[in-house]
Structure formats: structure tokens, C-alpha cells
């Protein structure tokens, strides 16, 4: 059964979209990360224009993050002060990113930039995640002591220090501001929540306790993704509500099954599996960039 997507300007099978949302929801529940960095490439693979895929997925991130952050609030695993500092940087970065998005769209280069961004970011994150998972697996199998995740560096000598009681940190606010800004730009250009970059940065650069990281990350992501969705809809008109609804319905169901399976698998194995999956998506996007298109020529109508 086909459904017409008014903003994407194409018809797709309803069950394909529901299934795609279910698969990404399953993976999100399985690996404990948002599926935006996988959803957007998959939407591109099935023919959705990259600008629409990016903007619509940002809308999906809001819904999935709200349910997650409420659960973490109840457990006391959200550092609101740190999340607010990250949010200030994230709002500035996402606003700037949407402006860059519009500029690239106007000059006809946004599709290329989106694909290149995914190839570079997913390739880098996938390799690092896989390598870290393998190292953790080796340490566990050999019963080696875990290495220290966080060490003091030059960034801790920066001014404007603040005390973050929930995370037990005393550090410069410039570092989380900068991290939030970078993640905000990624959210605007790639249509992701940025958790797959933000979470490692909060652990390794900020030195936050792992138990606080996920909830604080989701707290920031909600508002940054909402800002991206609003600005994309107002400035670029690229948010397809019909597409977002189909993906959301499938994702809610898939996440339930993924979370059940994820609780039964060791963390090291999950990291390796996710890393390999991310690398595979990056390689597929790279192939799409360098392969010869089916239609060598396209006809456009000038304004």
C-alpha cells in the first residue's frame, strides 16, 4: 500500500516505512543509542531526498528522547546544570548549522555535503567504537583492570570554571559549550541527535560518570533537535510530517523488542556489533558517492 509524502514528493510503501522505523527502533533499544545516524542514510537509500531525510529525522529524535529522559529523571541520572550548559552551545550550533544548511541548499551542494559528512563521521566513529569494543573484550577475557577513561588535560586550565555537583566536576564551562556547539552543528547538517558523538565526549573529555551521561545527553538532545526541526520547517520547508509519523509508529514498537534483547548481551559485544554496523553504512554511502549513477543525465527546470 503506497502513501504519498508531500514534502519528499514521492510515494513509498507504508509497510516499508513502518518496517524501517521498527528496525531502527529495535537497533536503538538494542544498543542504547538514538537511531538517527542510521535512519537518515537508510531513508536516502530508499529514495528520500537527503535534505528531507535530515530534517524529518531530527523531528523523530525529539519524540524518542523525551521518553528516555523522563525515565532517567526518575532515577536521578540527569545533571540539569551540565545539560543546560551543553544546551546553550547546542542551540547556538544548531541555529548556525541550519543557516549553513540553507546556504548549501541554495547553491545546490547540500546532498553532497550530507553524504560526505556521514561517510566521514560514521566511518570515524565506527572504527573507534569497534576498536574500543575489541579492547574492552580483551581486557574482560584476560581479567585486566579497566583503564582510566578520563585524564586531566589542557582544557581543564581554561577560565570560567563552574561546579557541577551532580557530576562531581569542577571545570571550565567553555569545554561543554564547545562540545554542545559542535553537536548542534551535526544535528542540523546530519539530522541526528548527536548522542553517538556527545556521549563519548562527555565520558572521555568531560569526565562525567557514565551513569549520568545518557540522561544528561538526552536532556540536551530534546531541545537541540526541536530547535533544528522548527528552523528546518521555517527556513527550508523540509520536514515531512507524514514520513515522520510512519517512522515513529514503527520505532515505538521496535524499541521495546530491542531493549529486551540488549539486556541479555554483554556490553563489549554490543559495542563491536554497533561499530561494524556503522562502518557498513558508511561504506555503502561511500559506494553511492563514487559509483556510476543509473541515470547519467538528469533534467531540471530552472526558476
Automatic annotation (TrEMBL):
Record membrane topology: Multi-pass membrane protein
Database matches in InterPro entries: TM_pro_TauE-like, TSUP/Inactive_protease-like
GO CC list: plasma membrane
Keyword Cell membrane: yes
Cell compartments where the protein resides: Cell membrane; Membrane
Keyword Transmembrane helix in annotation: yes
Keywords in alphabetical order: Cell membrane, Membrane, Transmembrane, Transmembrane helix
Transmembrane segments: 12-32, 85-104, 116-134, 169-190, 202-226, 238-257, 269-287
UniProt record similarity statement: Belongs to the 4-toluene sulfonate uptake permease (TSUP) (TC 2.A.102) family.
UniProt-recorded name of the protein: Probable membrane transporter protein
Organism this protein belongs to: Rhodovibrio salinarum
Amino acid at each position: 500500500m503506497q502513501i504519498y509524502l508531500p514534502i519528499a514528493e514521492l510515494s513509498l510503501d507504508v509497510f516499508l516505512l513502518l518496517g524501517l522505523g521498527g528496525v531502527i527502533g529495535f537497533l536503538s533499544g538494542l544498543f542504547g543509542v538514538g537511531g538517527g545516524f542510521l535512519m537518515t542514510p537508510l531513508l536516502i537509500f530508499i529514495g528520500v531526498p537527503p535534505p528531507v531525510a535530515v530534517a524529518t529525522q531530527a523531528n523523530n529524535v525529539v519524540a524518542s528522547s523525551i521518553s528516555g529522559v523522563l525515565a532517567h529523571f526518575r532515577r536521578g541520572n540527569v545533571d540539569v546544570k551540565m545539560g543546560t550548559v551543553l544546551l546553550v552551545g547546542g542551540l547556538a550550533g544548531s541555529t548556525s548549522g541550519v543557516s549553513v544548511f540553507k546556504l548549501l541548499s541554495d547553491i545546490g551542494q547540500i546532498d553532497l555535503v550530507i553524504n560526505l559528512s556521514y561517510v566521514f563521521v560514521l566511518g570515524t566513529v565506527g572504527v573507534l567504537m569497534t576498536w574500543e569494543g575489541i579492547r574492552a573484550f580483551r581486557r574482560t577475557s584476560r581479567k585486566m583492570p579497566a583503564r582510566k577513561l578520563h585524564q586531566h588535560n589542557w582544557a581543564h586550565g581554561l577560565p570560567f570554571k563552574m561546579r557541577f555537583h551532580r557530576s562531581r566536576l569542577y571545570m571550565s564551562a567553555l569545554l561543554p559549550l564547545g562540545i554542545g556547539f559542535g553537536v548542534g552543528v551535526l544535528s542540523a547538517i546530519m539530522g541526528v541527535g548527536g548522542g553517538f558523538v556527545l556521549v563519548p565526549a562527555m565520558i572521555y573529555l568531560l569526565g562525567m560518570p557514565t551513569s549520568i551521561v545518557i540522561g544528561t545527553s538526552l536532556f540536551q538532545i530534546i531541545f537541540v533537535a526541536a530547535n533544528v526541526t522548527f528552523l528546518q520547517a521555517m527556513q527550508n520547508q523540509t520536514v515531512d510530517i507524514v514520513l515522520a509519523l510512519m517512522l515513529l509508529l514503527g520505532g515505538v514498537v521496535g524499541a521495546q523488542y530491542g531493549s529486551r534483547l540488549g539486556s541479555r548481551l554483554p556490553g563489549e559485544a554490543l559495542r563491536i556489533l554497533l561499530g561494524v554496523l556503522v562502518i557498513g553504512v558508511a561504506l555503502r554511502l561511500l559506494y553511492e558517492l563514487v559509483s556510476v549513477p543509473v541515470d547519467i543525465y538528469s533534467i531540471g527546470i530552472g526558476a
